[in-house]
Amino acid sequence: MSDESPKLPAVVRPDRATLERTRVARERAIAGLSDAFANDRFDVDEFERRVTVVQTSESLAEIESAVADLGLTAADPAAHPTTALVPAAEAREQLSLFAVMGGVDRRGTWTMPHRLRVVTVMGGARLDLREARFPAGVVDIEVFAFMGGTEIIVPPGLAVQTHGTAIMGGFQEVNRAPAHPDPDAPLLRVHGFAMMGGVDIKMRLPGEGERAARRRERGEAKAERKAQRALDRADRRLLDRDGRGSR
């Protein structure tokens, strides 16, 4: 018998030109999806589904198919890059935020470090990254939450991966990143631990405030309840008709 183990197929990484074309197509598609969502052409679930397809796909055809019904293609002129970049030398290597029986709130234009550590103990942290400036490449957020929580708000154009452990709490799992990320684009990785607390990732449009987001969510929940009531009435009518027919 041979002691040689089977060779695994080599992983073929896209070249720089392919990554650049895909990045441009991805940014244009996300800009088109964001505009359509802002104009109520589809609900938040459909928006997040399409954005996830665009963010994770490395195929130009798949990216274009996600926006084909909007009259937008990857070749159309479109918006500026969806996530502001900062030269790597201008970003801090590491930053720590603590919320102990209190709160931390970061919003507006601020520069993300390469590694951000967030600790909440009987407190809460809210990180709004929609206007934040990111260094290119991987940006790590390490979260520790004990009887507290961390809310992270991200723009649609930011690739996100999360992985965490929760005990008597919750750690939202998100995977919106391609298998071979573009090293010139930011990739946010959120990981850590929550006990009797939680870590929540929300995707919102730039400029969409808390009140507008709640109003949109209430409207979508109301529409869903209305649709469910209509289905229930239709089911009852069918049951009544079948009951009369069997007499």
Q: Based on helices, strands and strand pairing, what is the structural class?
A: alpha/beta
- Biggest pleated-sheet summary: 6 strands, mixed
Number of helical elements: 4
Widest sheet, order of strands: 2-4-7-12-9-11
For the terminal residues, how far apart are their CA atoms? 75 Å
How big is the Rg? Answer: 22 Å
**How many individual β-strands?**
13
What are the segments in which pLDDT stays under 50 over at least 5 consecutive residues? none
Query: What is the H-and-E element order?
Result: HHHEEEEEEEEEEEEEH
Which range best describes the helical content: under 10%, 10-25%, 25-40%, 40-55%, 55-70% or over 70%? Answer: 25-40%
Walk me through this protein's architecture:
The chain is α/β, with parallel strands linked by helices. Helix content is 32%, strand content 29%. The protein has helices at residues 16-38, 44-56, 60-65, 210-245, and strands at residues 85-86, 94-100, 103-106, 115-121, 124-128, 134-135, 137-146, 149-154, 159-167, 170-171, 175-176, 186-195, 198-203. The strands form three sheets. It has a six-stranded mixed beta sheet with strand order 2-4-7-12-9-11. Strands 3-5-8-13-10 form a five-stranded parallel beta sheet, with no helix packed on it. The longest helix is centred in the last third of the chain and has 36 residues, at 210-245. 28% of the residues are buried. The model has no long low-confidence stretch (mean pLDDT 81).
